[in-house]
Amino acid sequence: MEINTFITKEEISNRVRELARTISDDYAGKDLLVVGVLKGSFVFMSDIIRELTIPARLDFVKLASYGSKRESSGKVRIDLDLSFEIKGKDLLIVEDIVDTGLTLSELKKILLSRQPASLKICTLLDKPSRREVAIKLDYRGFEIPDKFVVGYGLDWDEQFRYLPYVGVLEEE
Ligand code: IMP
Ligand code: MG
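^ thats the input. predicted complex w/ magnesium ion below
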């Protein structure tokens, strides 16, 4: 197995800064609650929140894991729920990657039933060619082709999350 750098550390940090600036403008004066989807989003989320210029609260949700497979089952189970009551809050869900869109659209349904004031999505990566259900992405770092990527929080079978860049996993 070989990993080829696809998005460098520098490219990521520049894009993260831009996204954080837009988010800070959009949420000025609001009651922002940033919700990270564990585990994949934790690196992206920790970088983005430190570039915000507005106050924000943080929370996490953990869904049933992707495991070692590369296909989304489309079924979402909450493994670890939020620790905040989200009714009336302005929610920003932070994801690592949107592939088929099934995970996020299910999560969105669950969270919307709790009546937040608003709910937006911020994803580092987007693979639109793989989409099975339409989902609006309010903030998006990079659009990527249909390749399996790892690093910067993203894993393959729990490996490679620690890499500071996004790389393509090539199988020999
Ligand atoms: P979706 O439900 O198909 O949109 O799947 C989204 C989830 O699948 C992401 O949160 C990731 O955990 C995982 N995933 C999808 N594509 C990749 C990839 O290229 N690398 C690592 N994880 C991926
Ligand atoms: Mg994920």
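Residues 37, 40, 95-96 surround magnesium ion (ligand 2) (CB under 6 Å).
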